[in-house]
Amino acid sequence: MSTKTTNEFGGEIGGVTLLGKAHSLSALFIVLLRATMGGMILFAGLGKVSEWPFDAAGYLANIDPASPVSGLYAAMASNAALMEFVNVFVPATQLLIGAALIAGAFVRLAALGGAMQMMLFYLGGWSGDALALFDSTLVYAVVFLTVAAFGAGRVLGLDAYIEAIEVGGETLTERFPALRYVLG
């Protein structure tokens, strides 16, 4: 006889309580979502590395003037020292985010990094067209945040093992509670 448990989740936002029950396949789909998003950003980073040297200046300098960040991105593109940093930072973080998500390690930190990159790309792609408000980079940002919110690293991921490491008779997250914000 098997014991069936119900996966309930919820929270309160602005005085409104939200409650839900996860389907029995939810764990599988959160792993697939984590791995898919990890693969997507890993291969974006690999693409940049394979065409080295990567140069973001052309993208940054040619943002649509309707974008709220066009002036900032143009100023960044004209700063050679900053571009040297950006040209290494973007592909390196994409590789790290992708590997972390696939392995299920430091998932919340990685997913937050992925969401931040997608929001920067979203703002850069802003054209002022109302039909373009919900483009793929915005959707990717929300999916990254969903992966973080569900603690997807605890399901077939290394975060479950990292959190259970004992330090001084306590689990890592008991001893260092702030790690709950980067693991999961």
TrEMBL record:
Q: Name one Pfam family in it.
A: DoxX
A GO CC term attached to the entry: membrane
Native organism:
Halorubrum kocurii JCM 14978
How is it placed in the membrane, per its record? Multi-pass membrane protein
* TM helices/strands, residue ranges: 27-46, 66-83, 95-124, 130-152
Keyword terms: Membrane, Transmembrane, Transmembrane helix
Concerning InterPro entries, the annotation shows: DoxX (IPR032808)
Domain of life, per UniProt, equals Archaea
User: Which coarse location class describes where this protein primarily resides?
Assistant: membrane
The record's subcellular locations are:
Membrane
Q: Indicate what this protein is called per its UniProt record.
A: DoxX family protein
